[in-house]
Write a structure and sequence with these properties.
The structure is a single chain. This protein has a five-stranded parallel β-sheet with strand order 7-6-5-8-9, covered by helices on one side. A four-stranded parallel β-sheet has the order 2-1-3-4, sandwiched between helices. It is globular, with a radius of gyration of 19 Å. It has twelve helices and nine strands. By secondary structure, it is of the alpha/beta class. Helix 6 (136-150) packs across helix 7. It folds into two domains: 11-134 and 291-309, Aspartate/ornithine carbamoyltransferase (Rossmann fold), CATH 3.40.50; 136-289, Aspartate/ornithine carbamoyltransferase (Rossmann fold, 3-Layer(aba) Sandwich), CATH 3.40.50.1370. Strand 3 (103-108), helix 5 (113-120) and strand 4 (125-130) form a beta-alpha-beta unit. The two termini are 20 Å apart.
Length: 310
């Protein structure tokens, strides 16, 4: 196994074999993730989490992953409590934080921020979301969840649903899942379709992008339905958001048309796009995703630290 990745800014930073290496390593982390035994794999290493946007799962799972592997964490969870409010630039902040840590996980409202940080930093940078751009480690945990449940990634009928324009999780997932499949169904309210540059990229790789409003029509064919919330915070006005919210809701009557083996994923947080009654069905995978986020991030930290020994 050779894993020589330094930064994870987008899925493009990972070859197929890197993705599979991460998923395999994640499988091996399960026992440690449940707290069965204290690991010393990353003893002496420090993870910095630098979050300029809200987060529950991503930040806590990265920090928990580091602690489970015997490492330590420092964190700016609210930039309002840091020198950013004094006008410090991202570059200066990164140069500072890298003096205190071995790896930085960054979430920032601006697209491209993580790439910019990686150009400034000498230590590995992980993009935990850059505005409406990318969120690659979410995608890795999505793939881990799909592979565990379906037993494979190849040849599955996958649909992404919801805010495909501003949703960074679906941007990363679209690139990643089509490494293993030839087709992707896209269902979005009008104006929130997958960005044309992503559609062009994927079509350029001979992938079939099926954009449809007919969720009920495609549902019986689906193996995976990936649901996302409308990204309210990226809309110019509350009225623009109100116009598109609530158009697609996954509920029990709709699921009568689903394959028994359908997996419904959601990166969370959920607002109103999946009815709570769906949680009790065998389709619901979104709480498994939460746990898989921990094991996948343990694998990512372990592999990046192994590849980038200082
Ligand atoms: C996602 C994000 O931040 O992009 N959340 C997450 O990391 N699980 C999805 C979202 O906010 O809708």
């Amino acid at each position: 196994m050779t894993f020589s990745v330094k930064n994870i800014i987008s899925i493009a930073d990972l070859a197929d074999k890197d993705i599979l290496t991460i998923l395999d390593r994640a499988d091996k982390m399960e026992r440690l993730a449940r707290g069965g035994k204290q690991s010393r794999l990353l003893e002496g290493r420090i993870l910095a989490t630098l979050f300029y946007e809200p987060s529950t799962r991503t930040r806590l799972s990265f920090e928990s992953a580091m602690l489970r592997l015997g490492g330590s964490t420092v964190s700016v969870a609210q930039v309002g409590a840091s020198s950013v409010v004094k006008g410090e630039s991202l570059a200066d902040t990164i140069r500072t934080v890298e003096s205190y840590s071995d790896i930085i996980v960054l979430r920032h409202p601006q697209e491209g921020a993580a790439q910019w940080a990686a150009e400034v930093a000498s230590i590995p940078i992980i993009n935990a979301g850059d505005g409406a751009g990318r969120h690659p480690t979410q995608t890795l945990l999505d793939l881990a969840t799909i592979r565990k449940s379906q037993g494979k990634l190849e040849g599955l009928n996958v649909a992404v649903l919801g805010d495909l324009r501003f949703g960074r999780t679906v941007h990363s997932l679209s690139y990643a899942i089509t490494r293993f499949t030839d087709k992707l169904y896209c269902v979005a309210p009008e104006g929130l379709e997958l960005p044309p540059e992503i559609v062009m990229d994927l079509e350029g790789q001979n992938k079939e992008i099926v954009q449809t409003g007919d969720l009920q029509g495609i549902l019986p064919d689906l193996d995976v339905l990936y649901v996302t919330r409308i990204q309210k915070e990226r809309f110019p006005s509350p009225a623009d958001y109100e116009r598109v919210r609530g158009q697609y809701v996954i509920d029990l009557p709709l699921l009568e048309h689903a394959k028994p083996t359908l997996d419904i994923l959601h990166p969370l947080p959920r607002v109103d796009e999946i009815a709570p009654a769906v949680d009790k069905t065998p389709y619901a995978r979104y709480f498994s995703q939460v746990f898989n986020g921990l094991v996948v991030r343990m694998a990512v930290l372990d592999l990046l630290m192994e590849a980038h020994k200082t």
